[in-house]
Each structure stands twice: as C-alpha cells, then as structure tokens.
Amino acid sequence: MTCSKGRPLLAWATGASACVLVLLGAGGAVQPGAAQAQEAASAVQDVTLQDVTLTFGDTVLKAPRLTASGTRLSKDELTALLKPGPGESWASRLVRLDAASLAMPELRVERTGTAGATPVVTYRDVVARDVRAGRAAEVTAAGASILLEGGPQKGTGTYGRMQATDLDMTVLARLYGEPGDGKSALQRIYATFAVDDVAYVDARGTAVKIARIEGRDLSGRQIPATWTGALQAFTAVDYERLALPERTRLMSLGADLAEAVSVGSLEATGLSVQEAKPRDAFSLGIARLGLTGAGLLLEDISFAGVDGAKARLARLSLDGFSLGPTVAALRKLAALTTPPSDAELRLLTPALGTLALKDLSLDLPPEAKAPRDPAEKMLTDKALADRTAPAPTQVGLHVGLRDGSMNFAPPRDGVPTAGRLSLSGLTLPASAVAGVPGLGSLGLYGYNDLDLALVADTSWDETARELKLGEVSVSGKDMGSLRIKGMIGGIGPEVFNPDVAVSSFAMLSATAKALDLTVENTGLFDRFIAAQSKVLSLKPEELKQEYVTASVFGVPAILGNSVGAKAIGAAMGQFVTKPGSLSVSLRPKNAAGIGMLEFSAAPTPAALFDRLEVNAKAN
Q1: pLDDT at 401
Q2: How far is CA 300 from CA 194, 196, 286, 308, 310, in A?
Q3: Radius of gyration of the chain (CA)
Q4: What is the structure's pLDDT at 32?
Q5: Is the N end or the C end of the chain the one with fewer CB atoms within 10 Å?
C-alpha cells in the first residue's frame, strides 16, 4: 500500500471524511446530565454559528457559516460541541447532535501536514438532513473544487453533486481518531455514496474525468494506529531509503488497513485520461469500472497513442481475487529482524483467481526505421526524391483476441498450485510470426491471417511431488492442433525457489512419468505438401510417398529400431498417407519414471525406448 506525495484523490478522500465530521460536530461518552438538558430544551430552533474552525490532526476545516435547523441545542451548546481542544472525543460529542438539517454554504478543507504539497478542497452548499445521534439520513454537496499547490504534483479539479445516505459520523470519528485492536466487528460508514462529474488536471496537462462514482456499503474497523495515523505514515515515504524498523512498521500498518476496510461495491462510469504533452500524448477511456470485495470489472476500454497505436477491449474481469495471503505475509514480514529474502517477499503474492478478457483489438503502426546518422538521412531523402514510382504503403500490425482467461489456484508459499491459460480467436497476420520457430513458414503455405487458440493447464500436487500437464495445446483455423499431456514427478517446493541455482539443482531430481501427444490435421499438412511439391518439382502424391517411406523406415532407425520406435514410424506413415490424427503415448516401464540425469546420460535413443511402453496410432 503506497501513497505518493500530494496524491489528489487521497487528499480529497481524507478531506471528504473530515467534511463529514465537521458537519455533525465532534467528541466523549454521553453524560446523563447533558442528555437531560437536551430533552429539557423548550423547543426546536434554528442556530447559526459564524467562522467555525476545526482541526483533525493535520486536517483543518473552515466554515464561514453553519446553520443547524430544527435542533433543540442552544447556540451555546452547539458552540461547546464544536469547540476545539482537549476534552471529549469527537465520537462522543457526535451522539449528542440532533437536527433536522445542518447547512454550510461553503466548507474549506486543508491538509497542513502534507510534505511538498498543500491540497485544499472547497465544498459548496453542504447539507446534512435528519441528523440523529451522529447519523445523517442524507448528506449532499452541490459541488467542490480542489487545488493542489506546492511540490511537483500541482493541479486543479472539480466535483459535481455529491450525496451519501445513512452516513454514520460517529463511526467515522472512531475510525479516524480512536485506536482499536484491529479485531472488532466491522462498522458500516455509509449505505450509499455518489459523486458526479469529477475532473482533474495536473501541471503536466494530464486530464482525468469521471462521469459518476457510486459506492455501497462501506464498512471499517478501528486499528491500533487509527486510520489517520496509518494514512499519514504512508504519505510522502521514500521506500528505497527506509530503515528496517520503519519498513516493518509500515508492513504491519498495511496489513491493518487491508483488513480494516470492506467495500460492498464501487462503480465508476465515463472514465477518461488524456495526456496533453505532444511527445507523450495518449488517451485512455473506460466506460465502466466495477469493484467488489472479490472482483474487478472493466468494460469498453479504449486507448490511443501519439504514434497511432490503438487498442480496444470490450471486457476485462477479475474474479476470486483475495488479499488474504498478502496480509498474512505482511504480518510475517513485519516480525522479521533482518531484511526479507526473495522467497519471503514472494509470499506477498495475492490469490489472483480468474482474469478474463473479451474482444481485444490492437493496432500498431508500421515500424519506423530512422536513418542511423545525418549522412544516411540525406541519402535516404535524395533517394525518395528521385523515385518516380510511388513508395509501397506500409501496413501496421493488427492483433485480435476473442476470448482469453487465466485462472490461478490459491498460492502456496507464493506459488499458485494450479493454473490455466486459455486464448481463443487470437488473430494476427502470418508476417507477424515470420521469425518464430515452427510458425515462421505459415505465410509460405498460403496463410495470410492466422486464427489461433492456445491452452496451458497445469497443476502441482505437493504431497505426491508431481506436476500434471492437464493440457498444453495450440490449434489454428484451417490448420489443425497439437496437444500434449503429461506427468512429471520429483517436483517439490524447492523447484519453485527464487534462487536459480537452487531451483535448477532441484530440477535434476525430476522424472518423466507420462507423455501423450496428439496431432490433428485440418488443412496445414495438405498445404505443406502442396508448397513443398512446388519447391521440389514433385507431384503431391510422389512427395507423400517419400515421406511415408521416411516415416516407416527412417524414424525407427533414428530411434533405435525398438518395437516402440517401429510403432511410431508405422503410425506416422499412416498419418502421411491419410492425414487425419496421430497420437503417441509414452509410459516408463518403471512406475517411478525416467530421471533427467538418465535422459542426458543415455548413449542412444534406443537406450530410452527400451524402457518405455509405447502406443501409437493414426486414423
């Protein structure tokens, strides 16, 4: 959890919370005498105070005028409630405040303790309605402006109408000002919250706009440092120069804050970011952003860069996300007396759940090849000027993805025990993979555009020390597919050690226990034969016959002429004759598998195939 210097949204959030506090007063337990005096007031009345100033830590609130309507408090009693200085806590004072409404034409919120920047938020026409025992049925503001002065992150912004319902000021006062053990029950702060027309521009000219923000069911619990103390600790921190005691303290505070906040839901619509500087100009748009306790959703994302790059994404979602492992790791690291190791830092990995994408479109401009020196540029310009024929049109790169997902099981010691990657409808021009082994020749076989699907499904069983390859496959439209399944033994936790030397040594104990390979042809092999026939000046049937001979006799010879090798050769020959599907299954005769060292030490392929049960077929 980090908070950069002068971050405007953090300043606004802190100011908004303080704004809520000042609306409804402040401070200690309700005394019977005060309650009786309040009940004894002759009648409800309107009370107006001038030049109200309140201080909450480094946050100062100033209201030129505050009017309490429909209250039984006298002017002196209301003044006493809002009087700054030691005495009752703000939460204790708030429960004595009742009014039909509290109104302030203007409320100015300043943060005086922010290093290098002084954020100021000014709210207009702030009204709290039906205030009973520190809880307001509704709080509204007509709008607000924000000014960030000093430091490198200067900026200005505005907010439209703001509204919160069932807002509990006593809870806010406790969270921000009173320490707790961090284990109490969550307390609800508000039922709903909404802000319209957020706009902010920083000194660089970067503009951020949000049409509307809505939240529901925000709750929190008290922590030892208080929310104010924790937020101040993370403000203007140079993490690279932190001493170990301060670093461990921040880790503990980060864990406290992460467990102290619960959001029912949060949604932002009409989000846009625009960078105005010509060299770095870009625009980013998000139609809708939704956040819940365990997930994130982004819809209709668009991006445009200064160089002509464009991207669109219809939907991005994250489900099953949890900071539980991260919080547990923060508490563990906070107890260390020495700097954490890479393995210990890896424990900070959260539970990622499932990340899914839908309808991705990416357009990249043609690659610009600038002359290497001024002399070369002059020659290039002259050559272009002398050219009579029009220059060939450069075409950019278009990449598309219909669906994509990545699923990860909860991590164990920072490593997910299972994962699945699935991509379908991955489209791109064949020229884009010209240099990729195995794919670079696809353009020669008549494929101009590729439509691919990829799957990688793995799971790790720590008890059995096995890594299962449920499926690793690649397939293409009008091409075919290649699928691999397998089992690798001897995979313990040390294989995932961040120290390369340790993990590499551990891999020497790995054993191959099963391998299944399946090839299906839906057009690629036929195009390969047709292309090679032209190159070799042979008829396709003649070339296929040569491949049949090479498969039936050459493959077994290479693999040692064992029974299994001959079975593979015969199946390959059948596949070439009638390209459909080919499957090969390999199982070690020894249930323990064949070790990595045995593979490397085998003098010939035959020495390995003699230890394998081989099943190969084609149809």
Answers
A1: 96
A2: 22, 20, 6, 19, 13
A3: 34
A4: 36
A5: C
Dist CA 97 CA 77 (whole Å):
10
> 52: alpha, beta or left, given left = phi > 0 and alpha = psi -120 to 50?
beta
CA distance 222 to 90: 15
Cα(113)–Cα(475) distance, integer angstroms? 59
Query: Cα separation of 557 and 561, whole Å?
Result: 5
Length of the chain: 619
615 three-state secondary structure: strand
Tell me which H or E stretch contains 68.
Answer: strand 59-71
Burial 309-338 (b: 16+ CB within 10 A, else e): ebbbbebbbbbebebebbbebbeebbeeee
Q: Check: CB of residue 92 under 8 Å from CB of residue 28.
A: yes
pLDDT tens-place string over residues 91-147: 888 888 889 999 999 999 987 765 556 789 999 999 999 999 889 999 999 999 999
Cα separation, 289 vs 267, whole angstroms? 5
The DSSP annotation for 439-472 comes to: TTTGGGGT-SEEEEEEEEEEEEETTTTEEEEEEE
Could you say which DSSP state residue 550 is in? Answer: I
CA distance 165 to 284: 32
Secondary element (H or E) of residue 486: strand 480-489
Residue type, 255: A
Closest CA to 192 of 222, 158, 167: 167
CA distance 272 to 274: 7
């709290």: which residue's tokens?
128
**Alpha-carbon distance 73 to 41, whole Å?**
7
Instruction: State the Cα torsion 95-97-102-108 to the nearest 10°.
Output: -70
Residue type, 439: L
Question: Position of tokens 């991006």?
Answer: 303
Distance of CA 488 to CAs 260, 596, 612, Å? Answer: 43, 10, 15
Does 313 have pLDDT greater than 80? yes
End-to-end CA distance of the chain: 58
Mean pLDDT of the chain: 84
Q: Token match 């290649």: residue?
A: 482
Count of CB atoms situated within 10 Å of the CB of 591: 8
- CA-nearest of 56, 100, 97, 48 to 73 is 97
C-beta separation of 461 from 485 below 8 A? no
- What does the alpha-carbon distance between residue 209 and residue 270 come to, in Å, rounded to a whole number? 7
Residue whose token pair is 């077994």 = 556
Specify the residue for token string 């669109």: 312
Match 């946050």 to its residue by tokens. 59
Is residue 542 over pLDDT 90?
yes
The pair of three-digit structure tokens given for residue 385, joined into one six-digit string: 């000027």
CA distance 222 to 186: 8
Listed in sequence order, the residues at least 6 apart from 250 whose beta carbon sits closer than 8 Å to its beta carbon are 233, 234, 237, 242
For tokens 């508490």, the residue is 331
The whole-number pLDDT of residue 539 equals 94
Q: How far from chain centre, in Å, is Cα 197?
A: 25
3-class SS of residue 149: strand
pLDDT at 190: 93
